[in-house]
Amino acid sequence: MAEIFRCMGKAARASLCAIARHLRLRSDVFNHLLDDTPLPANEVSSSVLLATYSLASLQNGKGAIGGGKPTVNGEVEKGLLTLVSSDSPGLQVCDPNGRWYLADCGSTPGDLLLITGKALSHATAGLRPAASYRAAPDYSSGTNNGGRTSLAFRLMPQGNAILDCSPIAAAGHVIPQSYVPISVSQFMDDLSAEEDVMCNRHENNLVGHYNLNKEPSLRSVLSDPLSGAFLEDAVFVSCGHSFGGLMLRRVLEMSRCTLCNSEIEAGSLIPNFALRAAAASIKQEDDRRLFHNAALRKRRKEMGDQTDSVRRSSRENGDIAADDGLLKGVQYPFSVNEKVVIKGNRRTPEKFVGKEAIITSQCRNGWYLLKIIGSGENVRLQYRSLRKILSSQAIEDRCPAMPIQNTNS
Question: Domain of life, per the record (predicted)?
Answer without folding.
Answer: Eukaryota
